[in-house]
Amino acid sequence: MNFKNPFFNLIRRSPAVRFALFFGLIALIIFGSAFIGKQTQKKPVISRITPVIGLPGSMMTIYGENFGKVKDSSYVEISGSKINEQNFSFWSDTKIQFTIPDNVSDGLVIVGNSSGRSAPAFFANENRIPVAVRPDPQTTIPVVSSITDSAQIGDIITITGKNFGTARGNSKVFFTANRDEISLDNTFENFICASENDYDYILWTDGEISVKVPDGAASGPVYVMTSKGSSEPVRTAISFPAGKKSFNNKHTFVVQITADVSTGNAANEAFITLYMPRPAESSVQPSVNLNEYYPEPLIKDDPKDIIYQKSINSITNHKQRFSQTYVISSYSMNSNIIPAKITGYADTKSVLYNAYTTPDFCIPSNNETVIELKNHIIGKEKNPYKKALLIYNYLLDNYKLESKVRTGDASVLDLPRRNSGDAYDFAIMFTALCRAAGIPAIPCSGILAESSSVTHPHWWAEIYFEKFGWFPVDPALGSGMEFTPFVPVENPRNYYFGNIDCQHIYFSRGWNQIRASLTNSKTVYLPRSYALQSIWEEASDETSSYSSLWNPPSINGIY
């Protein structure tokens, strides 16, 4: 039986059937084209935006690719808020234009479509920049004309342009931060500035900057910020031949530190000075904001301390509490290091290398006991990663960790003699042995936060590998010190050689040598405390008597 003839006869005889088939075919073609277009659509890429600093009501233009020929369901957002449909005036595959909303905040600019979200660009609301605006800001705002297009961690890149300033002062270079997820709460956490502590700034002139790619940077926009404003960002690519770190599990801590002072009668000119530690910024602790303080500090913009000074006789009822509260963002970090790619140090004359392989008051790396122990542990090993691992394993295999922190004049050099020590001894001895072995290393101190009510002082270390950056090591937790992490750690010994959880709150990265501000003053040093600094209190010579109590840092909230 031939089934085709009735079907074709029906089509031939019925105009309604022919009409339905025709429009069905058209719909199928349209649907198929849309489906194929959606499947082949690519993730948006932003090359630049203009302006980077602008006012609500003005026009913003985004340049790039893969935006789509029509807007359709694609979108643009600034600081997490999507731009309304009525604001757009132009949309093409390579260019978008829209009116900046009245309520815009400083933040990241992102273009999104069904295939994903673009890497961010940065926009600042001119009304919210706390600097004087000149009549023609384009004559003073820094302008970047070129940048080294690819580099690795620690490499020196060159930025050329104008209006950088003849001296750096407080100006900074910001790189895209290596984050698993962008932060919508604090957009500045999505960028990380070159570090003074790592000696990243090499050259600064009005038309050229030489700067090292900082630890914690990743591929993406780079911009220059001066007191006059911020340049438009220019992209650079960062590669990670020795392994790329991952930052995740962000937590925000509200941390308060206090000190109570009681005084007697004294001469009118008698006064005391307190050096209250400021939490340290780093790639794992990128945001440290001073939220509250009392009383008014003498100096509050020192990079390592908030400095208070009080006349003894001005203290009401002879008692005074000095207090400051910080909001601190902290990340867990996994190193993902490739040990075979770690090589020796090509630049042993760099400032960083010499600063962090030299002994100081805290790190006795030139002591004979340390040198003999270092030689015994590493033998003829030349690779810095293998040296550090040998030192770490030796400490954990040969010395017992004491749970109670030692007091008094206890010396870290007691560790090999007594075959036991506390977390401070383990961290400082590890740092000293690494420095003696030619590995840049710094001691770290702060607190471990187990909950809002359980904290205790703690010490660990970081070592530096070329082309990789800082590598955290916590010998005490690696040896089994009691601790309850937010995320369970299956093998602490392996984990804490190269990784760190978000519950380490840094107050010091390295030793802070403070010089007495007065002749014949009386100073107080607090050994084995949550910060590594030479002076905590200083009293003028006229001060007859007073007492102080430094309270352990407390956690007022965890988010």
Automatic annotation (TrEMBL):
<dbReference type="GO" id="GO:0006508">
    <property type="term" value="P:proteolysis"/>
</dbReference>
<dbReference type="GO" id="GO:0008233">
    <property type="term" value="F:peptidase activity"/>
</dbReference>
<dbReference type="Pfam" id="PF01833">
    <property type="entry name" value="TIG"/>
</dbReference>
<dbReference type="InterPro" id="IPR038765">
    <property type="entry name" value="Papain-like_cys_pep_sf"/>
</dbReference>
<dbReference type="InterPro" id="IPR014756">
    <property type="entry name" value="Ig_E-set"/>
</dbReference>
<keyword id="KW-0645">Protease</keyword>
<dbReference type="InterPro" id="IPR013783">
    <property type="entry name" value="Ig-like_fold"/>
</dbReference>
<dbReference type="InterPro" id="IPR002931">
    <property type="entry name" value="Transglutaminase-like"/>
</dbReference>
<feature type="domain" description="Transglutaminase-like">
    <location>
        <begin position="415"/>
        <end position="477"/>
    </location>
</feature>
<dbReference type="InterPro" id="IPR002909">
    <property type="entry name" value="IPT_dom"/>
</dbReference>
<protein>
    <submittedName>
        <fullName>Transglutaminase-like putative cysteine protease</fullName>
    </submittedName>
</protein>
<keyword id="KW-0378">Hydrolase</keyword>
<dbReference type="Pfam" id="PF01841">
    <property type="entry name" value="Transglut_core"/>
</dbReference>
